[in-house]
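Our platform keeps sequence and structure together, in a single record for each protein. Such a record has a labelled line for the sequence and another for the backbone structure tokens. This encoding replaces a full spatial description with a residue-level series of whole-number codes. Below, we set out a record of this kind in full and without editing:
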Amino acid sequence: MNRPEQTNVAELDKQLLRTSLFESGFARLGPVLSREQCQTLRASYQNAELFRSRVDMSRFGFGRGQYQYFAAPLPPLVAQLREQLYGPLVAIANDWMSALGKDATFPSSLTDFLKRCQQQGQGKPTPLILRYQAGDYNCLHQDLYGAVFFPFQAIIGLSVAGEDFTGGELLLVEQRPRAQSAGRVITLSQGEGVVIATRYRPARGARGFYRTTVRHGVSQVLSGERFTLGIIFHDAE
């Protein structure tokens, strides 16, 4: 795989990242991976030795499509991307918890956070590649794999929207207390990343922050084949 230090994570505007996450509950990262890196990751989907588990979504009622979780050790590019993204997100994650009146804090390093996961019996890596073909979709869900979870996760497009596939937009639905749910539709360019809320987020109200529940999914792919990389920071049981 390409050298992990070639990713564009170091160029992120951290203040813009914080503002977007607090105001909208998600943040576009811009281009994170190069075209060549995306192609390499897409090709890796066929290498069964890189993955610990393959899931057929229709079998479990998750929708239609397929995804595979990487095995340990993660490919260098995926491992480095996970670590590079955790760094600017962890301070915002702690501020989110504080805004919600929670005492939970997250360690400054991904290594220490993963040790916390292991202490709770969560030792299986969760970064994954998802593949959707025509007619496939992903039901609204949350990626929780145990008691320990990180409030953010990242999704990176590996295919070219409008060329490799049509349809297949990322869906975010926010359930607000005593109000109707709000939805958003996000189309990712190849190599572009977005950070979304894993379970809930603090939303600002007249009396301070309150908690809203967030789920995500993928609309039906109308044609072609869509690949995405998912970077989940907590490990699974």
Summary: The longest helix spans residues 76-99. Residues 1-5 have pLDDT under 50 and may be disordered.
